[in-house]
Amino acid sequence: MSRIALAFVLLFFLPGVSRAGPETELALKLPPTSLAKWYKPANKRQVWLHTMFSLRREYQAVSEYILLEDAKRALKWAKRLDKHYRSIAEMVPGWRDELEIQLLEALLAALEKDKLDVAGEQARKLVKSCRSCHREYQAVVALMYRAPDFSKMTVEDSETLEEEAFDKVMERLTTLLNRVKIAFEDGRKAVARESLEALHRRLEDLAGGCEQCHRDDSASRLLFGKDYQRISAELAEGIAQADVAKTGGAMGELAVSVCARCHAIHRIQSDMRELITE
Ligand code: HEC
Ligand code: HEC
Ligand code: HEC
Predict the structure, then answer these.
(1) Chain centre distance of CA 107
(2) Does position 278 have pLDDT exceeding 90, yes or no?
(3) How confident is the model at residue 19 (pLDDT cuts 50, 70, 90)?
(4) What is the Å distance from ligand 2's center to 219 Cα?
(5) pLDDT one-digit tens code per residue, 184-217
(6) How far apart are CA 111 and CA 184, in angstroms?
(7) Distance 51 CA to ligand 3 centre (A)
(8) Ligand closest in space to the Cα of 170
(9) Could you tell me the CA-to-CA distances from 269 to 78, 136, 221, 263 in Å, in that order?
(10) Which of 105, 118, 225, 276 could pair with 110 as two cysteines, CB 3.0-4.6 Å apart?
(11) CA triplet 182, 183, 189: central angle to 5 degrees?
């Protein structure tokens, strides 16, 4: 099994004491590589994830029918649960040891004999084995195989018509945002205005790329909709009138409603994914 240790160095400061505490490490395990076959792009569907959805539904049905003392229906669902649970080791042989097949055998046997107490106990034990795998792997797998990958993304610059690497685009946005602030503070109105226009163009180029993954314009509208129009107008006015409060407020709003909103989902996932996959 492939394993790497990711070290996050966390510095703890005791309240009121200005002394750095011990360094702490967090180790994360990577899943067996054969898992990739059950996710896009290697597979047409997210097969692994859908197997998990089935397991949850089947487990729920078994538990509910045991409570309703309906052994026949519970058995029907337990058989499906058995099939999907076993398929884990067929899909990812490296995870065979994570399974507790004997619990399912005992569950099926108990239901066949109408022993609902025993069946209930086996089902509860089984769900603990689900949890132990989840604790180790679930978050890492979701990041590795389901978080969108921005590392190979490019954004077309509408002026030069060149494709620019995503991280370069991000650096450019920050540079422009800060240039507006610096120039405004120092009374260089023309530079502030030009930089603001350039910032708008780069943001519109970025918005044009959302639909590479999003099916419609809902993502780009969320960021560049009505709020954006209003903030942009306030910024232009603020700069023209040399109004410090208005300009400062609008810059802050822009950074939150455009940059931070997207970062809250995409940057955090992207940074975590990169940590894990590199
Ligand atoms: C050998 C490891 C392993 C075992 C055993 C396992 N799972 Fe999972 N499960 C995973 C991984 C990995 C994920 C993360 C998948 C993802 O997010 O793409 C997951 C995710 C899930 C999810 C979350 C889906 C969501 O909403 O995002 C459910 C529900 C689930 N498993 C149910 C079960 C049940 C019920 C069992 C036991 C009967 C079980 N799993 C056993 C590895 C396992
Ligand atoms: C590389 C593919 C990709 C690109 C490019 C992309 N997104 Fe997403 N985005 C996703 C996926 C997939 C989700 C679903 C949640 C997840 O797994 O991250 C998502 C979710 C979101 C969400 C959370 C709410 C929702 O609508 O689902 C926001 C907000 C969002 N994206 C904004 C944007 C904006 C704005 C852009 C363009 C500037 C963009 N995204 C470009 C793939 C992408
Ligand atoms: C698609 C939605 C999205 C929007 C909108 C967005 N960002 Fe980002 N940003 C990302 C993602 C994803 C990353 C991490 C990936 C990367 O750095 O290539 C990132 C990373 C960054 C970084 C770090 C770059 C690096 O190389 O580490 C900076 C700085 C940044 N963004 C600034 C901004 C600013 C400023 C704005 C608003 C004017 C903004 N971003 C708007 C998605 C977005």
Answers:
(1) 35
(2) no
(3) low
(4) 6
(5) 999 999 999 999 999 999 999 999 889 889 999 9
(6) 75
(7) 34
(8) 3
(9) 36, 18, 21, 9
(10) 118
(11) 155
The CB of 151 under 6 Å from ligand 2? The reply is: no
Distance 267 CA to ligand 1 centre (A): 25
Which residue's C-alpha comes closest to atom 27 of ligand 1? Answer: 49
User: What average pLDDT is seen over the chain?
Assistant: 91
Place of tokens 């909709």: 225
Residue 266 CA, ligand 1 centroid: distance in Å: 23
- Give me ligand 1 centre to Cα 78, in Å: 17
pLDDT of residue 13: 35
Give yes or no for residue 146 CB within 6 A of ligand 2: yes
Q: What is the arithmetic mean of pLDDT over 94-104?
A: 96
pLDDT band at 52, cuts 50/70/90?
very high
Q: Is the Cβ atom of 269 under 6 angstroms away from ligand 2?
A: yes
Among protein residues, the one whose CA lies closest to atom 1 of ligand 3:
262
Nearest to 266 by CA among 225, 215, 206, 217: 206
**Ligand nearest the Cα atom of residue 148:** 2
Tokens 């086996």: give the residue.
122
Q: Map tokens 């395990």 to a residue.
A: 29
Q: How far is the CA of 259 from the centre of ligand 3 (A)?
A: 7
For 35-44, write each residue's pLDDT tens digit: 999 999 999 9
Pocket of ligand 1 from Cβ distances under 6 Å: 48-49, 52, 55-56, 59, 85, 88, 95, 98-99, 126, 129-130, 133-134, 137-138, 141-142, 145-146
Burial class (CB in 10 A: 0-12, 13-18, 19+), 90: exposed
